[in-house]
Design goal:
- It is built from 14 helices and no strands.
- With 293 residues, it is mainly alpha-helical.
- Helix 3 (36-58) runs antiparallel to helix 8.
- It has one domain.
- 74% of the residues lie in helices and 0% in strands.
- Keywords: Cell inner membrane, Cell membrane, Membrane, Transmembrane, Transmembrane helix, Transport.
- It is found in: Cell inner membrane.
Length: 293
């Protein structure tokens, strides 16, 4: 390793270090694989992945889709705006762009194509809207939890700081969609295809309770882990109090949610472990300090 260091020039050059030292930093210190990123992934991130899985299995995504449809379905380019609102609501509780696309995209993309939007534009709208879910409070992407750990501040502080940027992101996206819809002369959906807000809330409105509980718990200064577990319990209770019997969290649905969360956790954990390797290399070589100058 020391002789390899001499082959790099400029900010990439460093004094070099032995294999033993590299392995020690990778596996035996907090700046390596088993550092703050993996620690965060195995605690707060896993809890919220579990929360998102329970929310998805319970049918809350359908509630968000119906609410978004009722709010923006009749506007110009309505289905595309429905995709934005639905993805924002779903992303605020999942923090995963992939899960967001998988749950809302199957509903919104066909709607957008039905009013005349091209497949490419419909896919772009859904992908962009779902990606924004990673910065939409209260439950954001894994980077937000890692950021809180690195900076030594509470996750609630990160959430509050992200509110305005997230709203601006979605406002800009809605404006872009409206401009494109006007350019193409597109209209919204007919009144017959728009659900009534009262009917939607009456059938599944209690599934909004976990969102309120999580936000309230975080604002009270509780840890994200506490808020996540409380949110999971709220989902189970709310599903059984909801008039719509199809959303009830039976043992089968709970098992499905646990399995889905396990698959999602593996992906995030591997990514966070890889980030630990990058942090180790950046710290040891000093390239981080050089790039910041």
């Amino acid at each position: 390793m020391p002789y390899l260091a001499n082959t790099f020039m400029g900010i990439f050059g460093h004094a070099g270090f032995s294999v033993e030292r590299l392995l020690y930093r990778l596996f035996m210190t907090s700046e390596g694989i088993f550092g703050i990123t993996l620690s965060t992934a195995s605690t707060a991130i896993v809890v919220f992945i579990l929360f998102g899985s329970f929310l998805s299995v319970s049918g809350a995504t359908a509630l968000f889709n119906d609410l978004a449809l009722a709010m923006a379905g009749r506007r110009r380019g309505g289905p595309a705006q429905v995709a934005v609102i639905s993805s924002a609501l779903t992303g605020s509780l999942s923090g995963s762009a992939v899960a967001n696309v998988a749950t809302t995209g199957t509903f919104t993309i066909p709607l957008m194509k039905n009013i005349g939007l091209t497949s490419r534009f419909a896919g772009a709208v859904e992908a962009t809207a779902s990606t924004g879910g990673m910065i939409m409070p209260p439950i954001m992407g894994a980077a937000a939890f890692i950021m809180a750990g690195f900076l030594g501040i509470s996750y609630t502080t990160i959430v509050i700081a992200a509110i305005i940027p997230a709203l601006l992101y979605y406002a800009a996206l809605i404006m872009a969609i409206d401009i494109e819809a006007k350019k193409q002369g597109l209209k919204g959906l007919s009144k017959e295809n728009i659900p009534q807000v009262k009917a939607v809330l009456k059938a599944r409105g209690l599934l909004l309770l976990p969102l309120i509980i999580v936000i309230g718990t975080l604002l009270m200064g509780k840890t994200p882990i506490y808020a996540g577990f409380l949110g999971i319990l709220t989902i189970i209770v709310a599903s059984w109090l909801t008039p719509d019997k199809t959303v009830r969290m039976t043992l089968t649905k709970v098992a499905d949610a646990l399995a889905e969360a396990a698959r999602g956790s593996v992906q995030v954990t591997i990514a966070c472990a890889a980030i630990g390797v990058i942090i180790c290399v950046v710290t040891m070589t000093g390239i981080g300090a050089d790039l910041s100058i």
